[in-house]
Specification:
Blueprint: E1 6-11, H1 20-29, E2 33-38, H2 48-55, E3 59-60, E4 64-65, E5 70-71, H3 72-79, E6 82-88, H4 90-97, H5 104-111, E7 115-120, H6 124-128, H7 130-141, E8 145-146, E9 150-153, E10 159-163, H8 167-180, E11 188-193, E12 198-201, E13 204-206, H9 213-224, E14 228-233, E15 242-245, H10 249-260, E16 265-268, E17 275-277, E18 297-299, H11 303-310, E19 316-323, H12 327-338, E20 342-347, E21 359-366, E22 371-378, H13 379-390
Parallel strand pairs: 1-2, 1-6, 2-3, 6-7, 7-8, 11-14, 11-16, 14-15, 16-19, 19-20
Antiparallel strand pairs: 4-5, 9-10, 12-13, 17-18, 20-21, 21-22
Helix pairs in contact: 1-2, 1-8, 3-5, 4-7, 9-13
Length: 395
């Protein structure tokens, strides 16, 4: 279940920090990729060298990396499938519950949009404190999974609840999370993402504003759900699953035809140019004295329609409909005209959910014109909700 999954582990200051070494070993042994972030106090209990040796990755301590030129709390959030904080001190639990971001670990917890697991470990009196319990309740109510501490002999010399859950229990909880998400196991899902570019000459092209964020989120969600994923994309991005680089609509058409043959699901998220220049100049077009310049355009292949024509009974094709007006009307007309199984419609005229935004709001429409609205959320969460809506119920 954990093969090629990306697991971020956060370690806070507490005697139980040494136990996380075994947790890292278990995750690595079972095929997961592991990165570690730690608070300054955590390194009083377990050394940086030990953590780096076990994870085979640097330990992340600082908010900003000079080498990567990117805030670590953003790059690590993009990379990780889940975030496991163990042991979690009362101090860190309180910070996360109240949005305090005064170190890398708490900044990560604030920015992280996927599943977070927190395994508290502390003195019994601290654990039972009303404020700590209130903070834990806040975290649970907001979707964070609490792996409850055990009752037993504590490092402070007392008996009671507060001892870090067994490493095997923490591992099992994380593994079970991925197991429940495996509703696309043994399925091949092809996803297109980004905007195509249609060359005019060696330096100019016709394009659009699509960032590819939604398509990437859909591909990531399918991978988390256990699918064999192929992402056909027009931009640079690294993923653990197969990616295919294309530029033009014709390039994308050829790549989709090739991958669709043995696929179960095709999800066309890419913004494919409807037209391309009839003639592409070999040399850069020089500016003339004329006040106007004409380019003759010809139609590109309609990839969505063509795939719907050749799909087999065991295959599904899902299209995206990005509109600036009459969203539902155009989406329903599109699904009938193109004969796809689902259309996912989103309004690109809204700045907060349009091109390049990290958020979206969509309507999922089936071929019988039944419609489900997924309210505004991050594109990562929207993508997982779409996958669960369409395929999770069949698990």
């Amino acid at each position: 279940m954990l093969q090629n999954k990306n697991i971020l582990i956060g370690i806070t200051g507490g005697i139980a920090a040494y136990k996380v070494c075994e947790l890292i070993r278990l995750f690595k042994k079972n095929g997961a990729n592991v990165k570690v972030t730690a608070t300054k106090n955590a390194l009083e209990f377990v050394t940086k060298l030990t953590l780096e040796t076990l994870s085979q990755e640097p330990v992340y301590l600082e908010q900003f990396s000079i080498e990567e030129k990117k805030p670590e709390h953003i790059s690590l959030c993009d990379w990780a499938d889940v975030f496991v904080i163990a042991p979690a001190s009362a101090n860190t639990i309180g910070k996360i519950a109240n949005g305090v971001c005064d170190n890398l670990l708490t900044s990560l917890a604030c920015a992280f949009q996927k599943q977070i697991f927190i395994a508290p470990a502390m003195n019994t009196g601290m654990y039972n404190n009303f404020a700590v319990q209130k903070n834990i309740e806040i975290l649970e109510n907001n979707g964070i999974k609490i792996i409850e501490p055990e009752t037993g002999f504590l490092a402070c010399g007392t008996n009671g609840k507060g001892r870090l859950a067994e490493v095997s229990e923490i591992y099992s909880v994380v593994e079970s999370y991925f197991e429940k998400k495996q509703f696309l196991k043994n399925k091949k899902v092809v996803v297109t993402a980004g905007g195509t570019k249609e060359n005019i000459d060696p330096v100019r092209y016709i394009g659009n504003y699509s960032s590819g964020k939604m398509g990437t989120a859909i591909a990531d969600a399918a991978a988390i759900a256990g699918a064999e994923v192929v992402l056909i994309k027009t931009f640079d991005i690294d993923r653990n699953y197969k990616t295919v680089d294309v530029k033009s609509a014709q390039d994308m058409f050829e790549a989709v035809k090739k991958e669709f043959v043995d696929s179960d699901v095709l999800i066309m998220v890419a913004a494919v140019a409807d037209y391309r220049p009839e003639t592409v100049q070999d040399l850069k077009i020089k500016k003339e004295n004329n006040d106007s310049f004409t380019i003759k355009l010809v139609k590109n292949p309609d990839i969505l329609s063509e795939m719907c024509k050749i799909k087999k009974t065991n295959q599904q094709v899902i299209g995206f409909c990005a509109e600036s007006n009459n969203l539902i009307e155009y989406a329903k007309e599109k699904i009938k005209r193109k004969n796809c199984d689902y259309i996912i419609a989103n309004d690109i005229s809204k700045k907060e959910t349009g091109f390049a935004s990290n958020y979206n709001e969509v309507f999922v429409i089936d071929k019988h014109l039944n419609m489900t609205k997924i309210e505004k959320d991050t594109k990562e969460n929207i993508a997982m909700k779409i996958m669960e809506l369409l395929y999770g119920k069949n698990n």
